[in-house]
Amino acid sequence: DDTMRLSYRLIPYFDDQWLLVVRDVTKLMHLEQVRRDFVANVSHELRTPLTVVHGYLDLLEPEEKPDWAPMLTEMRHQSQRMTQIVEDLLTLSRLEAQERLPEESVSMASMLATLRREADALSQGRHTVSISDETSLDLCGSTKELHSAFSNLVTNAVRYTPNGGRIGISLRDTPDGGLSLEVSDTGNGIPPQHLGRITERFYRVSTSRSRDSGGTGLGLSIVKHVLALHQARLEIESEVGFGSTFRVVFGPERALERSEHDDALA
Ligand code: ADP
Predict the structure, then answer these.
(1) What is the pTM (predicted TM-score) of this model?
(2) pLDDT (tens digit, 9 = 90+) per residue, 183-206?
(3) Which end of the chain has fewer CB atoms < 10 Å from its terminal CB, N or C?
(4) Residue located nearest, by CA, to atom 8 of ligand 1
(5) Ligand 1 mean position to 155 CA, how many Å?
């Protein structure tokens, strides 16, 4: 459309005077929309060819050429990675296009149980996983998107923690009546100079190590978008060599008393 978009800023001037700065951001917002559409279209178009490549790769059995086996394994691995990147980009596009999400009552008891299963499956007994549920509150928001955000944090905790480490997931009340979900690990940690940037798309602390870990570099961007849609904030504490804590804090407007039904399920 050709609506004009303006941005306003009020800046203190002298004494009791104020300066109103009005900027025409029509073009900027249009370019942003073009970028979003482009990423969404490219990702969507890549889906089908990738499915085909992936499907045929799975059918190949190098019986007559045994030395092809490692190459096939690598090709399968890389096409899997590409598929994951495309899926994550589509998730990001979907989140960016949304102004609000469904407001369901999200059962945190079943959320924690799901996260525990996922952590166990990924860790395969290489880490100690502990869960603590210290609140009687549930969340109000989108179960699907919140699960994808929390799941990304748990996956990272397992991914960046050497064998024998500990992963903790805890849910707590906050003093203002909200709640927080904390995912902590005793892993590699993140050097402080990277902390401000790790939620950017494709940003990684150590490119080669992270790439080997199987991630896409998009996980924390997804987390950031989902949290913004829930007016929640992300706090990160990390010490190199000791581990990291990712804490998601929800305000009281996102908190719901758990129903009897949920307690019975838990
Ligand atoms: P990736 O798919 O690479 O894990 P993310 O967006 O999820 O992408 O994370 C961005 C980067 O932040 C990772 O590549 C990693 O370097 C760092 N990181 C994220 N979580 C942790 C963690 N729990 N411990 C150490 N480093 C982490």
Answers:
(1) 0.88
(2) 999 999 999 999 999 999 999 988
(3) N
(4) 217
(5) 9
